[in-house]
Amino acid sequence: MRKGKPFLEVFASALNEDYGFPVLEFVVFAYTVEITIALETFGHGPEPSGDPALIVLLTNPISAFMLVGLMFGLLVLKNIAYSFGNDLERGVIVSFLSYPLRRRSLLTAKLLSSIGVPFMLFASIQVFVIFLLVPGMVSPHVVLLAILSVLSYPILVASIVLVLTIFFKRGSKALFVGIVLYFASGFSWLLLLMTGPTGLKAAAIIYPSIALQLHYKTGWDPSVLRAWTPSFNEALLYIGAGYALSISILAAAYLYFERRLEM
Amino acid sequence: MKSRWITLMGRTGSILIALGLASVLLSAIPPRPLSEMGPWRFTSRPEKYGIIHAEVYLPQKGCRILITTNGSLQIYFLAAHPLQLLESIKSWIKEHFPTLNETQVLMRWEASVLEAFLQTRPEDIMLKETVKGERSIDFFPPKATNVTVLVSNPSLMPVDVNGKITVISTVVPRGRIATTIEVLTAFGVALALPKIVKKSKDYVRSR
User: ipTM of this predicted complex?
Assistant: First the structure.
Protein backbone atom coordinates (compact mmCIF):
# COMPACT_ATOMS: atom_id res chain seq x y z
CA MET A 1 0.00 0.00 0.00
CA ARG A 2 1.39 3.40 -1.00
CA LYS A 3 2.09 5.89 1.79
CA GLY A 4 -0.70 8.33 0.93
CA LYS A 5 -3.34 5.70 0.22
CA PRO A 6 -4.52 4.96 3.79
CA PHE A 7 -4.61 8.70 4.49
CA LEU A 8 -6.83 9.23 1.46
CA GLU A 9 -9.00 6.27 2.49
CA VAL A 10 -9.61 7.77 5.94
CA PHE A 11 -10.12 11.25 4.45
CA ALA A 12 -12.63 10.00 1.86
CA SER A 13 -14.48 7.96 4.49
CA ALA A 14 -14.62 10.99 6.84
CA LEU A 15 -15.91 13.17 3.99
CA ASN A 16 -18.60 10.61 3.23
CA GLU A 17 -19.60 10.43 6.89
CA ASP A 18 -19.50 14.20 7.54
CA TYR A 19 -21.35 15.43 4.48
CA GLY A 20 -24.19 13.39 3.08
CA PHE A 21 -25.41 14.55 -0.33
CA PRO A 22 -26.67 17.32 -0.71
CA VAL A 23 -25.76 19.02 2.60
CA LEU A 24 -22.59 20.67 1.35
CA GLU A 25 -24.21 21.65 -1.97
CA PHE A 26 -27.13 23.26 -0.14
CA VAL A 27 -24.83 25.20 2.23
CA VAL A 28 -22.70 26.40 -0.71
CA PHE A 29 -25.81 27.47 -2.64
CA ALA A 30 -27.40 29.25 0.33
CA TYR A 31 -24.18 30.91 1.51
CA THR A 32 -23.36 32.25 -1.97
CA VAL A 33 -26.82 33.78 -2.27
CA GLU A 34 -26.74 35.10 1.31
CA ILE A 35 -23.29 36.69 1.27
CA THR A 36 -23.83 38.30 -2.13
CA ILE A 37 -27.09 39.89 -1.01
CA ALA A 38 -25.58 40.83 2.39
CA LEU A 39 -22.55 42.48 0.78
CA GLU A 40 -24.74 44.35 -1.68
CA THR A 41 -27.40 45.37 0.84
CA PHE A 42 -25.56 45.94 4.11
CA GLY A 43 -22.21 46.77 2.60
CA HIS A 44 -21.42 49.65 0.37
CA GLY A 45 -23.76 48.49 -2.35
CA PRO A 46 -22.54 48.87 -5.87
CA GLU A 47 -20.08 51.61 -4.95
CA PRO A 48 -17.21 50.09 -2.97
CA SER A 49 -14.43 52.35 -1.83
CA GLY A 50 -11.32 50.21 -1.69
CA ASP A 51 -9.70 48.18 1.05
CA PRO A 52 -11.29 49.80 4.15
CA ALA A 53 -14.76 49.12 2.75
CA LEU A 54 -13.76 45.55 1.99
CA ILE A 55 -12.55 45.03 5.56
CA VAL A 56 -15.98 46.05 6.85
CA LEU A 57 -17.74 43.88 4.30
CA LEU A 58 -15.75 40.76 5.04
CA THR A 59 -15.20 41.06 8.74
CA ASN A 60 -18.49 42.43 9.98
CA PRO A 61 -20.73 40.01 11.84
CA ILE A 62 -23.40 40.19 9.14
CA SER A 63 -21.31 38.68 6.39
CA ALA A 64 -19.31 36.39 8.63
CA PHE A 65 -21.82 34.79 10.91
CA MET A 66 -25.35 35.61 9.83
CA LEU A 67 -27.68 32.72 8.95
CA VAL A 68 -25.84 30.42 6.58
CA GLY A 69 -22.42 31.74 7.58
CA LEU A 70 -23.31 30.39 10.99
CA MET A 71 -24.17 27.05 9.39
CA PHE A 72 -20.53 26.60 8.37
CA GLY A 73 -19.47 27.08 11.99
CA LEU A 74 -22.13 24.73 13.32
CA LEU A 75 -21.29 22.18 10.61
CA VAL A 76 -17.68 22.17 11.80
CA LEU A 77 -18.72 21.77 15.45
CA LYS A 78 -21.12 18.96 14.52
CA ASN A 79 -18.41 17.19 12.52
CA ILE A 80 -15.88 17.33 15.34
CA ALA A 81 -18.10 16.76 18.34
CA TYR A 82 -20.77 14.52 16.88
CA SER A 83 -19.08 12.53 14.09
CA PHE A 84 -15.57 12.30 15.55
CA GLY A 85 -17.00 12.02 19.09
CA ASN A 86 -19.17 9.11 17.99
CA ASP A 87 -16.17 7.40 16.41
CA LEU A 88 -14.35 7.65 19.75
CA GLU A 89 -17.37 6.66 21.83
CA ARG A 90 -18.31 3.61 19.76
CA GLY A 91 -14.75 2.51 19.12
CA VAL A 92 -14.95 3.01 15.34
CA ILE A 93 -11.66 4.85 15.58
CA VAL A 94 -9.97 1.54 16.55
CA SER A 95 -10.70 0.13 13.09
CA PHE A 96 -8.98 3.16 11.55
CA LEU A 97 -6.00 2.58 13.83
CA SER A 98 -5.52 -0.81 12.15
CA TYR A 99 -4.52 1.10 8.98
CA PRO A 100 -0.77 1.57 8.44
CA LEU A 101 -1.16 5.16 9.54
CA ARG A 102 0.23 7.18 12.42
CA ARG A 103 -2.28 8.50 14.91
CA ARG A 104 -1.45 12.10 14.05
CA SER A 105 -2.06 11.40 10.33
CA LEU A 106 -5.39 9.81 11.22
CA LEU A 107 -6.39 12.91 13.19
CA THR A 108 -5.16 15.17 10.35
CA ALA A 109 -7.30 13.29 7.80
CA LYS A 110 -10.32 13.64 10.09
CA LEU A 111 -9.68 17.35 10.73
CA LEU A 112 -9.08 18.02 7.04
CA SER A 113 -12.58 16.76 6.39
CA SER A 114 -14.32 18.31 9.40
CA ILE A 115 -12.56 21.71 9.60
CA GLY A 116 -10.61 22.07 6.35
CA VAL A 117 -13.39 21.45 3.83
CA PRO A 118 -16.06 23.81 5.27
CA PHE A 119 -13.67 26.65 6.06
CA MET A 120 -11.98 26.30 2.67
CA LEU A 121 -15.40 26.53 1.02
CA PHE A 122 -16.32 29.49 3.27
CA ALA A 123 -13.15 31.34 2.19
CA SER A 124 -13.48 30.33 -1.48
CA ILE A 125 -17.06 31.59 -1.68
CA GLN A 126 -16.06 34.92 -0.10
CA VAL A 127 -13.21 35.30 -2.62
CA PHE A 128 -15.54 34.29 -5.47
CA VAL A 129 -18.18 36.84 -4.46
CA ILE A 130 -15.68 39.66 -3.83
CA PHE A 131 -14.03 39.20 -7.21
CA LEU A 132 -17.42 38.91 -8.88
CA LEU A 133 -18.73 42.12 -7.33
CA VAL A 134 -15.65 44.34 -7.17
CA PRO A 135 -12.85 42.88 -9.33
CA GLY A 136 -9.70 44.95 -9.55
CA MET A 137 -10.85 47.32 -6.82
CA VAL A 138 -9.42 45.42 -3.88
CA SER A 139 -5.96 44.18 -2.90
CA PRO A 140 -5.66 40.38 -2.84
CA HIS A 141 -3.55 40.52 0.36
CA VAL A 142 -6.32 42.45 2.13
CA VAL A 143 -8.90 39.83 1.05
CA LEU A 144 -6.61 37.10 2.40
CA LEU A 145 -6.01 38.94 5.70
CA ALA A 146 -9.71 39.70 6.16
CA ILE A 147 -10.64 36.04 5.64
CA LEU A 148 -7.82 34.81 7.91
CA SER A 149 -8.88 37.23 10.65
CA VAL A 150 -12.55 36.29 10.44
CA LEU A 151 -11.80 32.55 10.50
CA SER A 152 -9.53 32.81 13.54
CA TYR A 153 -12.30 32.67 16.15
CA PRO A 154 -14.25 29.75 14.60
CA ILE A 155 -10.98 27.79 14.36
CA LEU A 156 -10.23 28.58 18.01
CA VAL A 157 -13.68 27.30 19.06
CA ALA A 158 -13.24 24.22 16.85
CA SER A 159 -9.87 23.51 18.52
CA ILE A 160 -11.39 23.80 21.99
CA VAL A 161 -14.23 21.47 20.98
CA LEU A 162 -11.69 18.98 19.57
CA VAL A 163 -9.72 18.94 22.84
CA LEU A 164 -12.90 18.43 24.86
CA THR A 165 -14.14 15.69 22.50
CA ILE A 166 -10.87 13.77 22.74
CA PHE A 167 -10.69 14.30 26.49
CA PHE A 168 -14.28 13.22 27.26
CA LYS A 169 -14.32 10.63 24.43
CA ARG A 170 -17.83 11.77 23.62
CA GLY A 171 -19.18 14.70 21.70
CA SER A 172 -22.36 15.88 23.44
CA LYS A 173 -20.65 17.96 26.18
CA ALA A 174 -18.08 19.32 23.76
CA LEU A 175 -20.80 20.24 21.26
CA PHE A 176 -22.70 22.12 23.97
CA VAL A 177 -19.58 24.04 25.04
CA GLY A 178 -18.79 24.80 21.39
CA ILE A 179 -22.24 26.16 20.63
CA VAL A 180 -22.22 28.29 23.81
CA LEU A 181 -18.75 29.67 22.95
CA TYR A 182 -19.80 30.34 19.37
CA PHE A 183 -22.90 32.27 20.34
CA ALA A 184 -21.26 33.98 23.32
CA SER A 185 -18.70 35.63 21.06
CA GLY A 186 -20.91 38.63 20.40
CA PHE A 187 -21.48 39.35 24.09
CA SER A 188 -17.94 38.63 25.22
CA TRP A 189 -16.24 41.14 22.94
CA LEU A 190 -18.78 43.78 23.94
CA LEU A 191 -17.84 43.15 27.60
CA LEU A 192 -14.13 43.36 26.78
CA LEU A 193 -14.78 46.54 24.84
CA MET A 194 -16.23 48.23 27.90
CA THR A 195 -13.01 47.74 29.86
CA GLY A 196 -11.15 50.21 27.62
CA PRO A 197 -8.06 49.87 25.38
CA THR A 198 -6.64 46.94 27.37
CA GLY A 199 -9.87 45.00 26.96
CA LEU A 200 -9.94 45.91 23.29
CA LYS A 201 -6.42 44.51 22.83
CA ALA A 202 -7.36 41.32 24.70
CA ALA A 203 -10.47 40.96 22.52
CA ALA A 204 -8.31 41.46 19.41
CA ILE A 205 -6.27 38.34 20.26
CA ILE A 206 -9.45 36.26 20.30
CA TYR A 207 -11.10 38.15 17.41
CA PRO A 208 -8.24 39.51 15.27
CA SER A 209 -10.73 41.07 12.85
CA ILE A 210 -11.12 43.84 15.49
CA ALA A 211 -7.43 44.80 15.07
CA LEU A 212 -7.79 44.82 11.28
CA GLN A 213 -10.94 46.95 11.40
CA LEU A 214 -9.34 49.41 13.82
CA HIS A 215 -6.22 49.62 11.65
CA TYR A 216 -8.36 50.61 8.66
CA LYS A 217 -10.32 52.98 10.98
CA THR A 218 -13.58 51.57 9.83
CA GLY A 219 -16.66 49.77 11.12
CA TRP A 220 -16.41 51.29 14.61
CA ASP A 221 -17.67 54.20 16.66
CA PRO A 222 -15.19 57.17 16.51
CA SER A 223 -14.66 56.97 20.30
CA VAL A 224 -13.37 53.40 19.94
CA LEU A 225 -11.19 54.41 16.97
CA ARG A 226 -9.59 57.10 19.17
CA ALA A 227 -8.92 54.62 21.96
CA TRP A 228 -6.64 52.36 19.91
CA THR A 229 -5.42 52.46 16.32
CA PRO A 230 -3.06 49.55 15.68
CA SER A 231 -0.47 49.77 12.91
CA PHE A 232 -0.65 47.29 10.01
CA ASN A 233 2.15 45.21 11.58
CA GLU A 234 0.34 45.21 14.91
CA ALA A 235 -2.84 44.00 13.17
CA LEU A 236 -0.79 41.23 11.57
CA LEU A 237 0.65 40.40 14.98
CA TYR A 238 -2.85 40.05 16.45
CA ILE A 239 -3.93 37.75 13.60
CA GLY A 240 -0.76 35.72 14.24
CA ALA A 241 -1.48 35.65 17.98
CA GLY A 242 -5.04 34.43 17.34
CA TYR A 243 -3.74 31.58 15.21
CA ALA A 244 -0.92 30.81 17.64
CA LEU A 245 -3.56 30.35 20.34
CA SER A 246 -5.57 27.98 18.11
CA ILE A 247 -2.43 26.09 17.03
CA SER A 248 -1.29 25.60 20.63
CA ILE A 249 -4.70 24.14 21.54
CA LEU A 250 -4.63 21.94 18.42
CA ALA A 251 -1.10 20.82 19.33
CA ALA A 252 -2.35 19.82 22.79
CA ALA A 253 -5.15 17.82 21.12
CA TYR A 254 -2.63 16.09 18.83
CA LEU A 255 -0.30 15.27 21.72
CA TYR A 256 -3.12 13.87 23.84
CA PHE A 257 -4.53 11.86 20.92
CA GLU A 258 -1.12 10.46 20.00
CA ARG A 259 0.37 9.69 23.41
CA ARG A 260 -2.26 9.61 26.12
CA LEU A 261 -5.55 8.53 24.63
CA GLU A 262 -6.45 4.94 25.37
CA MET A 263 -9.00 3.19 23.19
CA MET B 1 -9.23 3.79 -5.35
CA LYS B 2 -10.60 4.83 -8.76
CA SER B 3 -14.12 4.99 -7.35
CA ARG B 4 -12.87 7.27 -4.53
CA TRP B 5 -11.53 9.71 -7.12
CA ILE B 6 -14.80 9.52 -9.07
CA THR B 7 -16.72 10.28 -5.85
CA LEU B 8 -14.39 13.18 -4.98
CA MET B 9 -14.64 14.63 -8.50
CA GLY B 10 -18.41 14.14 -8.46
CA ARG B 11 -18.72 16.04 -5.18
CA THR B 12 -16.51 18.85 -6.47
CA GLY B 13 -18.64 18.97 -9.62
CA SER B 14 -21.92 19.09 -7.69
CA ILE B 15 -20.54 21.92 -5.52
CA LEU B 16 -19.59 23.88 -8.64
CA ILE B 17 -23.08 23.27 -10.06
CA ALA B 18 -24.57 24.52 -6.75
CA LEU B 19 -22.41 27.65 -7.07
CA GLY B 20 -23.58 28.06 -10.66
CA LEU B 21 -27.23 27.66 -9.64
CA ALA B 22 -26.76 30.26 -6.89
CA SER B 23 -25.34 32.62 -9.53
CA VAL B 24 -28.36 31.92 -11.78
CA LEU B 25 -30.69 32.78 -8.91
CA LEU B 26 -28.77 35.99 -8.13
CA SER B 27 -28.81 37.07 -11.76
CA ALA B 28 -32.58 36.43 -11.90
CA ILE B 29 -33.27 38.95 -9.11
CA PRO B 30 -34.81 41.92 -10.94
CA PRO B 31 -33.00 45.27 -10.80
CA ARG B 32 -34.23 47.64 -8.09
CA PRO B 33 -34.89 51.30 -8.92
CA LEU B 34 -32.68 53.84 -7.14
CA SER B 35 -33.97 57.11 -8.56
CA GLU B 36 -36.21 58.34 -11.33
CA MET B 37 -35.98 61.24 -13.77
CA GLY B 38 -39.04 62.31 -15.68
CA PRO B 39 -41.43 61.73 -17.27
CA TRP B 40 -40.40 64.38 -19.79
CA ARG B 41 -41.41 65.18 -23.33
CA PHE B 42 -39.79 67.10 -26.18
CA THR B 43 -39.75 67.26 -29.95
CA SER B 44 -36.64 66.07 -31.69
CA ARG B 45 -35.98 68.38 -34.60
CA PRO B 46 -35.31 66.86 -38.04
CA GLU B 47 -31.66 65.94 -38.73
CA LYS B 48 -30.59 67.09 -35.26
CA TYR B 49 -29.30 65.41 -32.10
CA GLY B 50 -29.34 66.27 -28.42
CA ILE B 51 -28.07 65.06 -25.04
CA ILE B 52 -30.84 63.63 -22.88
CA HIS B 53 -28.90 62.17 -19.95
CA ALA B 54 -25.42 61.87 -18.42
CA GLU B 55 -24.26 59.92 -15.34
CA VAL B 56 -21.46 57.71 -14.02
CA TYR B 57 -22.57 54.09 -14.25
CA LEU B 58 -21.10 50.87 -12.85
CA PRO B 59 -21.45 47.20 -13.82
CA GLN B 60 -24.14 46.91 -11.10
CA LYS B 61 -25.63 50.39 -11.42
CA GLY B 62 -27.17 51.17 -14.76
CA CYS B 63 -30.23 52.84 -16.20
CA ARG B 64 -33.55 51.91 -17.75
CA ILE B 65 -34.81 54.27 -20.41
CA LEU B 66 -38.48 54.05 -21.25
CA ILE B 67 -39.12 55.95 -24.43
CA THR B 68 -42.12 56.45 -26.71
CA THR B 69 -41.80 58.15 -30.10
CA ASN B 70 -44.03 58.77 -33.11
CA GLY B 71 -41.13 58.26 -35.52
CA SER B 72 -37.73 56.62 -35.85
CA LEU B 73 -34.88 57.80 -33.60
CA GLN B 74 -31.33 56.67 -32.81
CA ILE B 75 -30.27 56.41 -29.17
CA TYR B 76 -26.55 56.38 -28.40
CA PHE B 77 -24.94 55.45 -25.09
CA LEU B 78 -21.46 56.95 -25.31
CA ALA B 79 -18.52 56.36 -22.97
CA ALA B 80 -17.67 60.02 -22.40
CA HIS B 81 -18.34 62.89 -20.05
CA PRO B 82 -20.84 65.28 -21.75
CA LEU B 83 -18.47 68.29 -21.56
CA GLN B 84 -15.59 66.25 -22.95
CA LEU B 85 -17.83 64.90 -25.69
CA LEU B 86 -19.03 68.36 -26.74
CA GLU B 87 -15.47 69.64 -26.70
CA SER B 88 -14.35 66.75 -28.92
CA ILE B 89 -17.25 67.31 -31.34
CA LYS B 90 -16.40 71.03 -31.44
CA SER B 91 -12.75 70.27 -32.25
CA TRP B 92 -13.85 67.80 -34.93
CA ILE B 93 -16.14 70.42 -36.55
CA LYS B 94 -13.37 73.07 -36.45
CA GLU B 95 -10.99 70.60 -38.05
CA HIS B 96 -13.39 69.59 -40.83
CA PHE B 97 -15.14 72.96 -41.38
CA PRO B 98 -12.38 75.52 -40.80
CA THR B 99 -14.39 78.36 -42.36
CA LEU B 100 -17.07 78.30 -39.62
CA ASN B 101 -16.90 80.86 -36.81
CA GLU B 102 -17.32 80.00 -33.08
CA THR B 103 -21.10 80.63 -32.99
CA GLN B 104 -21.68 78.56 -36.12
CA VAL B 105 -19.63 75.72 -34.61
CA LEU B 106 -21.73 75.80 -31.45
CA MET B 107 -24.93 75.68 -33.51
CA ARG B 108 -23.93 72.52 -35.42
CA TRP B 109 -26.14 69.99 -33.63
CA GLU B 110 -26.58 68.00 -36.82
CA ALA B 111 -27.23 64.29 -36.84
CA SER B 112 -24.93 63.84 -39.84
CA VAL B 113 -22.09 65.55 -37.93
CA LEU B 114 -22.64 63.24 -35.00
CA GLU B 115 -22.64 60.20 -37.32
CA ALA B 116 -19.42 61.32 -39.01
CA PHE B 117 -17.78 62.15 -35.67
CA LEU B 118 -18.70 58.77 -34.17
CA GLN B 119 -17.30 56.96 -37.19
CA THR B 120 -13.90 58.27 -36.11
CA ARG B 121 -14.48 57.07 -32.51
CA PRO B 122 -16.38 53.78 -32.69
CA GLU B 123 -14.86 52.66 -29.36
CA ASP B 124 -16.94 55.33 -27.56
CA ILE B 125 -20.26 53.80 -28.67
CA MET B 126 -21.35 51.48 -25.87
CA LEU B 127 -24.84 50.92 -27.22
CA LYS B 128 -26.72 52.14 -30.30
CA GLU B 129 -30.42 51.44 -30.59
CA THR B 130 -33.10 52.43 -33.09
CA VAL B 131 -36.38 53.39 -31.39
CA LYS B 132 -39.77 53.54 -33.06
CA GLY B 133 -42.93 53.45 -30.95
CA GLU B 134 -42.56 52.31 -27.33
CA ARG B 135 -39.29 50.85 -26.13
CA SER B 136 -37.55 50.07 -22.83
CA ILE B 137 -33.75 49.84 -22.81
CA ASP B 138 -31.69 48.54 -19.86
CA PHE B 139 -28.07 49.62 -19.89
CA PHE B 140 -25.15 48.44 -17.70
CA PRO B 141 -21.54 49.28 -18.65
CA PRO B 142 -18.86 46.55 -18.27
CA LYS B 143 -16.84 48.87 -15.93
CA ALA B 144 -17.27 52.21 -14.12
CA THR B 145 -17.86 54.70 -16.94
CA ASN B 146 -19.00 58.27 -17.56
CA VAL B 147 -22.02 57.73 -19.80
CA THR B 148 -23.71 60.30 -22.04
CA VAL B 149 -27.00 59.41 -23.70
CA LEU B 150 -27.80 61.11 -27.01
CA VAL B 151 -30.93 61.08 -29.13
CA SER B 152 -30.45 61.63 -32.84
CA ASN B 153 -33.19 62.19 -35.39
CA PRO B 154 -31.76 61.47 -38.86
CA SER B 155 -35.17 61.77 -40.58
CA LEU B 156 -36.62 64.87 -42.26
CA MET B 157 -39.67 64.92 -39.94
CA PRO B 158 -39.84 66.15 -36.32
CA VAL B 159 -40.38 63.36 -33.79
CA ASP B 160 -42.30 63.69 -30.52
CA VAL B 161 -40.53 61.96 -27.65
CA ASN B 162 -41.94 60.93 -24.26
CA GLY B 163 -39.49 59.38 -21.85
CA LYS B 164 -38.51 58.39 -18.36
CA ILE B 165 -35.09 57.39 -17.02
CA THR B 166 -34.74 55.17 -13.96
CA VAL B 167 -31.36 54.51 -12.34
CA ILE B 168 -31.37 50.79 -11.48
CA SER B 169 -29.12 48.53 -9.46
CA THR B 170 -28.62 44.76 -9.69
CA VAL B 171 -27.29 42.41 -7.01
CA VAL B 172 -24.58 41.09 -9.33
CA PRO B 173 -23.07 42.60 -12.47
CA ARG B 174 -25.08 41.22 -15.40
CA GLY B 175 -22.17 41.13 -17.85
CA ARG B 176 -19.80 39.18 -15.63
CA ILE B 177 -22.29 36.76 -14.10
CA ALA B 178 -23.26 35.21 -17.46
CA THR B 179 -19.69 34.06 -18.18
CA THR B 180 -19.27 32.91 -14.58
CA ILE B 181 -22.42 30.77 -14.76
CA GLU B 182 -21.28 29.18 -18.04
CA VAL B 183 -17.80 28.35 -16.70
CA LEU B 184 -19.03 27.01 -13.34
CA THR B 185 -21.76 24.86 -14.88
CA ALA B 186 -19.50 23.50 -17.63
CA PHE B 187 -16.75 22.50 -15.17
CA GLY B 188 -19.30 21.19 -12.68
CA VAL B 189 -21.03 18.95 -15.24
CA ALA B 190 -17.67 17.74 -16.61
CA LEU B 191 -16.50 16.75 -13.12
CA ALA B 192 -19.82 15.21 -12.08
CA LEU B 193 -20.31 13.25 -15.31
CA PRO B 194 -18.22 10.16 -14.38
CA LYS B 195 -20.16 9.84 -11.12
CA ILE B 196 -23.52 10.22 -12.91
CA VAL B 197 -22.48 7.55 -15.47
CA LYS B 198 -21.32 5.22 -12.69
CA LYS B 199 -24.55 5.69 -10.73
CA SER B 200 -26.63 5.06 -13.85
CA LYS B 201 -24.66 1.89 -14.63
CA ASP B 202 -25.09 0.66 -11.05
CA TYR B 203 -28.81 1.37 -11.22
CA VAL B 204 -29.24 -0.50 -14.53
CA ARG B 205 -27.18 -3.45 -13.20
CA SER B 206 -29.27 -3.63 -9.99
CA ARG B 207 -32.50 -3.94 -12.02
Answer: 0.81
